[in-house]
Design goal:
By secondary structure, the chain is an alpha+beta fold. The protein has 3 domains: 190 residues, Aldehyde Oxidoreductase, domain 4; 330 residues, 2-Layer Sandwich (Aldehyde Oxidoreductase, domain 4); 144 residues, Aldehyde oxidase/xanthine dehydrogenase, molybdopterin binding domain (Aldehyde Oxidoreductase, domain 4, 2-Layer Sandwich). The chain has 19 helices and 32 strands. It has a 7-stranded mixed beta sheet, with helices on both faces. The protein is globular. The chain binds dioxothiomolybdenum(VI) ion. Dioxothiomolybdenum(VI) ion (MOS) binds next to loops.
């Protein structure tokens, strides 16, 4: 326990929003009820490409309680430029516009909205809307359309073209030992528990209130006012709770567009809720083909890395991922070459899915490393250690911190890696073949600009706020901890508000950057308040702090007290009361400290160890044990941090063994768009998962020393499991998911 009761940083505090969530008090976007609410149901295109020749809503409109059917024929005239539709995190291209014209560009595209007195009625009425299409040929199969593949440009998004170095082809040809193999990651969908929903309240008021499921209220607000041409202050977007996002809510989705349009046109509150099937029409992790070629010396020193990948995107936007740079980053190797292309298809645009690019790229790289270890007759962990990079190999810069070595060591020890018999099929338990595999992982430790506001009352109650999100990551909790610790207040006296455009600006919650970015803003604004409180504490009559400076005091247990003599203290409430101050309110925006960060690279790292049990007769794979050792800087809350990694490991099990969105290329349609056929891990798939946070001090990265943990946990899981399956069976499956038909 901490020596100071109000120092909450690093403490396993339970979620401050936990009670609200388990008691149902927490309200989600589709649960805000208002009188006169109408229900919208989106009509989805059944073809992948073509035109809407005719759309006839007359039968639907005959039903009592059906208020309106919106189609491209009667939707309002809106903004015309691509820019208006381009949200904060849009890839390059021309964003999709719902109900804009008669074009159909992907199967499942919203082509209409029925608005009725109930959701059931709207859904039924939608079946009565007759649509005649002019069908045009579509292309949805990346492998059949490689001829159209192009090299994407760097745009506004995080995509960076990795820099090659040396002469990889020559080094590969000359290497003593080589492997070259192809790996396939299929299309996957995020499938958070909560479906997308928007409740738009418009009663002729000045402000239209939008309750939307999103990872970024500011992004949604800007999107709406740009498209609908209303002043920003007329649109307030609220999203206090989000039932999982994983990236699917980074961009505004069509439910909010449709609900906003309908509410504005019909001048009444409207809610649009998507079905589970429609959750497959919002974006996905793109199917990606990869080839990794590794050349090494007999001693296992890497001489050449050639990493090629082909991903898929829509025809209207160029969604590029950082699949490749990891191969240049992680290991010492003088000769590295990359090739990345995108195939444009008649699908909707992919969208970031937990560790976008990295989950895909590490799967291939770390499987290839395992194949190389087998070829060299070397322990897979030893091979990683022999090529361990102390510096960022892409940039030639030192890391602000990198404790991957400690991850390897502590993970291996906890797992019992030293007891591994390297021979495939050498470990068994009756009919079950046992396999042990491992993989490395990395993710970028970003920091973005963020703002926060703090208000401290004379009663010692502190409210801090920022327009960020909590998509289940624990934002509410860690921000409350940071604020309480900075001002030395009991955590019960601190409230953190988020998910409201009325609050200080923050970026989308994504990229694992919220803890570092919003956390730094919260710390900063609370420090400003702290200084004001200190001045008041010094000004009280006979203040024991009169001659002290800010550096001489701590804020703890509701008091400002001298570091060298804790009996010399002034209560925060007393300081404010005697100063005649009812409240202190401050707002600050903070950016990364570039002067301090210059010359460094910032990454989280992890080592994942997995044990599988494969049924020899049936080919079924069970992940019986995972140890994930993570270096994520300072861990603000080991409980919520562990939950992040646990969830990510579970998602990684899904990626390795279960998840695949199957496109029927004849129809150009995802055919398993439901939970019966799109499999995600359930309780029975989750066994022993252990999470280790290795100690990692980072004085450079940000004032908190925290790196963010949302993505790192999934990055190495698929490779570790694939490598374990090989070790168990002697069979190398290079296409995810590893289903029993591929194992047999
Ligand atoms: Mo994350 S894929 O940036 O929500």
């Amino acid at each position: 326990m901490p020596t100071v009761a109000t120092d909450y940083i690093g403490q396993p505090i339970s979620r401050v929003d936990g009670l609200a969530k388990v008691t149902g008090v927490a309200k989600y976007a589709g649960e805000f009820n208002v009188p006169g609410l109408a229900y919208g149901y989106a009509i989805s295109s059944t073809i992948a490409m073509g035109r809407i020749h005719k759309i006839d809503s007359s039968e639907a409109l005959k039903l009592e309680g059906v208020f309106h059917v919106f189609t491209h024929e009667n939707s309002p005239t809106l903004a015309l430029s691509d820019d208006a539709y381009r949200d904060d995190v849009a890839p390059t291209g021309s964003p999709f516009r719902p109900l804009h014209d008669d074009r159909v560009v992907y199967s499942g595209q919203p082509i209409g909205l029925v608005v009725a007195a109930s959701l059931e009625l709207a859904r039924y009425a939608a079946t009565l809307v007759r649509v005649e299409y002019q069908v045009e040929p579509h292309a949805t199969d990346p492998l059949k359309n490689l001829g159209e593949a192009y090299v994407p440009e760097e745009g506004k998004t995080e995509y960076k073209k990795p820099k090659p170095r040396g002469r990889a082809q020559e080094a590969f040809a000359a290497a003593a030992s080589t492997v070259a193999a192809e790996y396939i990651v299929p299309m996957e969908h995020h499938n958070p528990m909560e479906p997308y929903a928007s409740t738009v309240v418009w009663n002729g008021d000045e402000v239209i209130t939008v309750y939307d499921k999103t990872q970024g209220v500011d992004n949604v607000q800007r999107y709406l006012y740009k498209i609908f041409g209303c002043p920003p202050e007329q649109v307030r977007v609220i999203s206090p709770f989000v039932g999982g996002g994983f990236g699917s809510g980074l961009r505004p989705q069509y439910e909010v567009f449709l609900a906003f349009m309908a509410a504005r046109e019909l001048k009444r509150p409207v809610r649009v809720t998507l079905t589970r099937q429609q959750m497959f029409s919002l974006g996905y992790r793109p199917a990606t083909w990869q080839r990794v070629s590794l050349g090494a010396t007999k001693e296992g020193r890497l001489e050449a890395i050639i990493h090629e990948a082909i991903g898929e995107t829509s025809r209207y936007e160029s969604y590029a991922e950082n699949v490749l740079p990891w191969s240049g980053l992680l290991y010492q190797c003088a000769n590295v070459q990359f090739d990345y292309k995108l195939v444009p298809l008649d699908l909707c645009t992919p969208i970031d899915m937990r560790a976008p690019g990295a989950a895909t790229g590490f799967y291939a790289l770390e499987c290839a490393m395992d194949e190389l270890a087998v070829k060299l007759g070397m322990d897979p962990l030893e091979l990683r250690l022999r090529n361990y990079a102390e510096q960022d190999q892409n940039e030639g810069k030192p890391f602000s911190s990198k404790e991957l070595r400690a991850c390897y060591q502590q993970g291996a020890e906890r797992f019992g890696w030293a007891r591994r018999n390297p021979t495939p099929r050498s470990m068994r338990e009756g009919k079950k073949l046992i396999g042990w595999g491992m993989a490395s992982a990395a993710w970028v430790a970003f920091q973005t600009k963020a703002a926060a506001k703090a208000a401290l009352t004379q009663e010692g109650k502190l409210t801090v706020s920022s327009a960020t999100a909590d998509i289940g990551t624990g934002t509410y909790t860690i921000m409350t901890q940071i604020a309480a610790s900075t001002l030395g207040l009991p955590i019960e006296d601190v409230t953190f508000n988020l998910g409201d455009t009325a609050l200080p600006e923050a970026e989308v919650e994504g990229g694992s950057f919220t803890a570092a970015s919003v956390g730094s803003a919260v710390k900063n604004v609370c420090e400003v308040v702290r200084e004001k409180v200190f001045r008041l504490a010094q000004a009280v009559p006979n203040s024991p702090l009169a001659g002290a400076s800010l550096a001489d005091v701590t804020f703890a247990e509701g008091k400002v007290r001298l570091k060298r003599d804790a009996t010399k203290a002034v209560a925060i409430t007393a300081a404010m009361r005697q100063g005649g101050v009812n409240a202190i309110e401050e707002e600050r925006s903070i950016e990364p400290d570039e002067a301090k960060r210059k010359g460094y690279s910032f990454y989280t790292h992890a080592a994942t160890f997995a044990e599988v049990k494969v049924d020899e007769d049936f080919g079924t794979v069970r992940v019986s044990r995972v140890v994930s050792a993570v270096a994520g800087g300072r861990i603000l809350n080991p409980k919520t941090a562990r939950s992040q990694v646990l969830g990510a490991v579970v998602m990684g099990i899904g990626m390795a063994l279960e998840e695949e969105s199957v496109v029927d290329h004849n129809l150009g349609r995802i055919v398993n768009h439901n939970f019966a056929e799109y499999h995600v891990p359930v309780e029975a798939d989750v066994r022993d998962i252990q999470v280790i946070f290795v100690e990692e001090r980072d004085e450079i990265i940000n004032p908190l020393g925290a790196k963010g943990l949302g993505e790192i946990g999934i990055v190495g899981v698929a490779a570790a499991i694939a490598n374990a399956v090989y070790h168990a069976t002697g069979k190398r499956v290079r296409e995810l998911p590893i289903t029993l038909d591929k194992v047999m």
